[in-house]
Amino acid sequence: KVKYYITLEEVNLYMGTMLSDNWPDSLEKGVRTYVIEGVKEEKTMYQDIYTILTSDSNQERDSSASGFADFEEFTGTVTYDSGGEGYDVTYSFTEYARGMKVERKLAADNLYNIINRRGKGLGTAAKRSKDKLGVQLFNEAFTTVHGTFDALSLCSSAHTSPVSSISTTQDNSGTTAFSATAVEATRILMRKYLGEMYELLSVEPDMLLIPLNIEEA
Q1: Residue 17 is inside which H or E element, if any?
Q2: Which of 17, 21, 122, 124 has the CB geometry, 3.0–4.6 Å to 6, for a possible disulfide?
């Protein structure tokens, strides 16, 4: 959950106040074009890789339940399986902010609606910040714990099961260099992911998240 605020005054700033002396072109007649956003606004990325939920609480908690083991041949006696609850994880929400404070004289005297258009820039910065925070989970997937159920990094060689009878760990931290062959090999490995009772899951990998330097490949 990320909050951001766009305000024109009475906000503590990182870069100080917009003053008339620093924005002389906005007060001068005869300027044909005043470019505010010089870069085309891109589509948000985090909406493609996350399910977006809302919350009115300062934190939320998720729980999980294990599946059931595979069926056995019936020989006159049924083996009963209770399953059970799995790991819990609690999400505590961090608040983010950025403001813009404007000298009243500049707001009153500017000729090209600069002040109101600068507010849009804060919205663009908020979108960019949310995307950066969204991909942080994947950029640090091999090194940092971000609320995973078993308190290990997202990509780990030793993911555990909460079921006491399951001592086997699982590895989802491949290190093969990127290639078409490696993608297919990884897809096959992901299709073999097992659940908390060591049962086969129905995993269908369908997305690649890649850095800019291998986009062409």
Answers
A1: strand 17-18
A2: 122
| Cβ atoms of residues 137 and 146 within 8 Å | yes
State the DSSP H helix or E strand holding residue 18, giving kind and residue range, or none if neither.
Answer: strand 17-18
- In angstroms, how far is CA 110 from the centroid of its own chain? 38
Overall pTM > 0.90: no
Q: Report, as an integer, the average pLDDT of 154-170.
A: 86
Q: What residue spans of 140-195 are helical by DSSP H?
A: 180-191
Task: Render the burial of 163-202: b for 16+ CB within 10 Å, e for the rest.
Answer: beebeeebebeeeeeeeeeeeeebeeeeeeebbbbbeeee
**E-assigned strand segments in 24-110:** 59-65, 85-92, 101-102
